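[Automated response] Your request has been received and processed.

Submitted sequence:
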Amino acid sequence: MWRPTARSLDSHPHLKSMLLSPPPPRAKPSFFSRSIFTSPNHHHHHHHRFLSPSSTSHSLTLPNPPSILILRSFAGGGNLNCSFGVVHCVSSVSSAAYTTVPWNQPVSCSEIGDVGGSGGSEAELDFVDNAARPYIPVRAFFFSTSVDLKSLVDQNKQNFIPPTSRMTNYVLLKFGDLKAEPNGLGSSLSGSDCVYMVVFQYGSIVLFNVRDHDVDGFLKIVEKHASGLLPEMRKDEYEVREKPTLSTWMQAGLDHIMLQYLNIDGIRTIGSVLGQSIALDYYVRQVDGMVAEFTDINRAMEKTGTFTMERKKLFQLVGKANSNLADVILKLGLFERSDIAWKDAKYAQIWEYLRDEFELTQRFASLDFKLKFVEHNIRFLQEILQNRKSDFLEWLIILLIGAEILISVYDIAHRSL
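Generated structure:
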């Protein structure tokens, strides 16, 4: 078990001189982290590899009691950015003379002491590994029902990435500067300033690697080409993590997916599922509103035995229900498999996992059930309105016949006189 301690370094001149002395300047920016721990009598070792940052030799001599772990990191180039921490170990260490560790050589497992016992060491190292992994924020938005992709591409030709499949209901735009496309072999999207934006014709926008304060700027780029703006914008968040050393192509996680690398095809695949998911959420809420409206009508009918809905309002609900179902099936392409997923099994795995993660099939089944409920109520109300119209016509005919009889009687009486 480890706990931080505010121990003065004045009592350890060797540590103080080491921590305050800057490392030799490097011509090429670099980042490295070094941990040194001496505990000669501890035999539980952590299998952790340390990299040697420089060929220049620096040695550090530590006194024996108590055991001290020194963490020191530098972020490179000519400017020095040094941070360090001194951690005091609760467990005691038997006296030993001095232990010297060369600074320019890797530290082997035998040189690393027991970190609070063998019980929690693996969990602690796993926590540090997870905390250090880079991640890519993914944000999905839905604020309009249609986007003119042609005009959007015309005004952002320098950012447009040509499609690699036959899908024409979306465009991919790239912003920022990245020396090489993210493919896992060259540069990585994690930690870079490069931004990718997937815009769909049905109104969804998916942003990759965008900071919170930059979101509005990218949305305004699309807003100029959007129609049918919604009073309330829908949004969702997800996360992609890159780990080149991952033993499998992908690994599922809580609210994130971990990949060996994220490239253009991966961005298209993930963006397509998130775009469908956030749009489906909008249509589900639209149908929920219709269900609530018909529920109120049914409750009023239960109390009064009749209803006062106009025929025009009913026809509007019919059109809304049909258009929602058509948009989900045709515009969203909810049942169309991604072309990229057809070509490569790796992306098919991502596509199938994300569809299951966001429950697209189950949510559409729920939407379809609600639409059937709406359809049943519409048919029932249409029959009532039709019966009302038939009753009105029947009474009108009766009145006309009665009027004709009265006129005939009057005419007969008048002639008899």
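Summary generated for your ticket: The longest strand covers residues 226-242. Residues 28 and 121 are 34 Å apart (CA to CA).
If you did not submit this request, please reply to this message.
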